[in-house]
Each structure stands twice: as structure tokens, then as C-alpha cells.
Amino acid sequence: MGAEANGYKVMIKVIETVAAVLPVQEHRLAQSNFDLLLPPLDVGIFFCFKQPPSLTNADDAGPGTLPEMVSILKVALAKVLVTYYPLAGEVVTNSSGEPEIWCNNRGVDFIEAYADVELKDLNLYDPDDSVEGKLVPKKKDGIMCAQVTELRCGGMVLGCTFDHRVSDAYSFNMFMSAWADKAQCQPISRFPSFHRSLLSSRVVSPSTPLDPIFDRLFIPLSLCPPPNPSISFSTPVNRIFYISAADMASLQATTNYNYSKMVCFTAYMWQILARSADHDEKSCSMGLVVDGRSRLKILKDEKAREGYFGNVLSIPYGNLSVEILVDMKLADVAEEVYNWLSPAATEDHFLGLLDWVEAHKRESAVAKIYLGDGKEEDKSISCVISGGRGFPEVDFGWGKTVFGSYHFPWGGKAGYLMPIPQPMTGDWVVYAHVAPNVVRVMEEEPSIFRPLTTEYFLA
């Protein structure tokens, strides 16, 4: 079996299923109201490793061969799945038609592969060429799958895919760190909590008043407007850029440091989106994913907040006309972002969202901006940004990753970006899933976006 494109071939050598090393009592785990806002979406993540010194230096104490490294990964995975047992299960439908997790220790599909390419030759700027269908596996069954790909140079890439209905990026980052802990025979640094009762809604009846903001941000699927056959959208492409720490500082300085770097970056991208709009795209929407963990006092202590496993997300967004956006000063756009973002970064917002989902539990709902911006009368351009702070620099015992990123061609009408701050340098790596015309504007000089190169991350 193999996959080949642009002269670079991946051969699948072994496919097996890794289950938790200890038996798990079979049971069903309900999804929280936040989880129920996610449609079936698979998220990819990958990590690149150089050839370990132990493969060329007999005096090094690390694993001596690549098969030994793969064995370490599988043994550690079987161990960590005892603690992170929902990831070894399946998503099924309950009697009410809602998804829930069947914790049955089905296991995780684990793929061993070989790629006839060297790490230095991977064109990670263009994941459509180098990652999609090659280094990040397609999940066929279960909640997650993993693939370890040996490279011709002796390096390797570890790619995983997981069901977003079960885990957000924060939760999966926890899992990856725990997997690495087990590989090095260390105690797990952060234990997960699967107590859905921590995120119970308040008592909701038909007469309970709900904040109308949630009807603007989310929509039951039955109320989604049908596709307008007269409106077409460009097929998105995937790209990875980096932004230097100096350019990020300069961007923030244009607002006199009145706003966070994330708010400034969101404002900058909102204007890029407007500049890339076609002549028939009259409005422009920008959303920013907000993590509710630190906002919810019902997650009563630090361990409950930091360890909660699942989705705790909302996606507020703003909409302005393209004509207005392109002429605004960046500081004014940042103020617009701050104005629609701030009300969503509160406990009241997340408690209200739990209540809104409870009131609409008869059917599935979704974030409006995932569908564009919920309007059917006009063609608009939209995008969502999800911060990647806390991306794990995992070390399984043969050195830390030299590069890692999420890979999320999510299938929505809106584009998607994940900026990942690099703690050592202050640079930002940015994964982008956007239309080709947006990429073109992102790269127009003067630009803060630089195409990712191996010279950059192997330096």
C-alpha cells in the first residue's frame, strides 16, 4: 500500500490496533453541552523529529533503532490509554439521538509507514503537498488514530487524527504530553477529568429568558439556510507560515499596545480577508475561538480547570462591510475585535451558552460562522482563528520535536487559522486553511507572513 504525489511516496508497512494495557470497565460517557455544538469533524496534528543521536552514536543512552522507538510509542500509548480511556472508545448515538462516547477499549488504530523523503526536503509550507494523505492519517474507525512515518534520513513524523466532538486542542495537547510522559516512564504531569456534571446547565424551561446573542452566534441545523446554487466558493488550500517576534511586536505597537497580540493579529487578518474579497463579496466576518476553562468558576479549582477533557469553546465573531474594513486603521479594527470578543470571555457567556444548548437539545446546532456567517442573501467572506498557545513540545525519549503543527482542513465555508506561539523564540507559526486569493494577499509585501522552510525550523 502506498500514497505518492510530486515524487514523494509513503508506504504503509503495518496497521494494528493498540488498546489500553489494563481492562476498562465498559460504560457510556455523555457529551457535555459544549461538545454537542461540534459537528463530526476530524482534527490532525503532527510532530517532526530529527534522527536521534543514538542511531549513529553507540554511546548515546537513547533507543538504538527506529523499531525500538516505534515499540516505545506503542507501549506508552497502551499505558496512557488507561488514563485517557475515552480516546480508545467510539462515538455512538444514544436513544435521544445525541452522540456519546462508548468507552469499550476498542483501541487506537496505529499505522507504521515509510516515506522516501528526508526531513530537510519536506515542503511543510504546502501541507497539501507534504502532509495531507501522507503524514497525518485518515481516521476510519474509533475516536483517534496515529501514524509514525520513518523518513529516509532516519528522522520520523508522528501524526494523529482525533474526533473534535470528543476533544478540543487543549485536551489533546494534554493527552500528547501524557503519552510522552509514559514513554519516558515518568508520572503523568496532568491528569484528565471527564466529569461532565461540572458543566451542567442551569434549570431551563420554555419560559427561561436566554441571551439573544446566542441566536446570533449559533444556529440549529434545521434552521440553516439551504445552499444558494448561485453562490460558489473557492476550494481552500493549506499553508504554514511563520511570523517573527519582531514583526509581532511591531504589529502590536501600531495599536499603542492597547490590545493583546491575539486581538491585533485577528484585526490584521480581518483586513487581509477584506482585501482578498471578490467583487461580489460585500461583507466580511471574522471569528475568534474562546476557551472557557479559565472563565468558569463552576470548574471550582485549578486542577478541575486545567484537567477538564472535552470541548469548552465558544466562537464569537464580528461582521463589517468589505468597503469599510479596507479603509480602517488597524487600531480601530482591533477595537472592533475587542468589542465583540470581550462579552464572550466571561463566565456569564459560557453559562448562558450551556443553557442555550440545553434549550435546543431536541436537535443539533452549530456555530454560524462555520457555515459562513449565517446569511443567505449575500455572498460573504469569513474566517475563524483559534489560538494554539500551549502546543506541546513532546519528547518521547529521543529529543524534542523540531517542528509541529495542527492540520485541520475542516470543511466549513469559513477559512481557518491556528497561530502557534513559539515559547523559545517569540515567533508565531501559523497554520492556514483559506482560499487561494486569501493566501495571495497574505503574501503580498509588505507582509508579516513568511513561508515556512526547513531552514527555519532546522536551524
Structural notes for this entry:
This protein is of the alpha+beta class and 459 residues long. The chain is 25% helix and 26% strand. It is built from twelve helices and 21 strands. It has a seven-stranded mixed beta sheet. A seven-stranded mixed beta sheet has the order 15-12-17-19-20-11-21. Helix 2 links the parallel strand 7 and strand 8. Helix 1 packs across helix 3, helix 5 crosses helix 6 and helix 6 packs across helix 9. The radius of gyration is 22 Å and the shape is globular. The N terminus is likely disordered.
3D shape: globular
User: Uncertain regions: pLDDT < 50 for 5+ in a row?
Assistant: 1-5
Radius of gyration: 22 Å
Count of helical stretches: 12
Binned strand content: 25-35%
How would you write the strand order of the largest sheet? 1-2-7-8-9-4-18
> Structural class of the helix and strand makeup?
alpha+beta
The separation of the N and C termini measures 34 Å
Characterize the main sheet: 7 strands, mixed
Helicity range = 25-40%
Rounded mean pLDDT is 92
Could you tell me the number of beta strands? 21
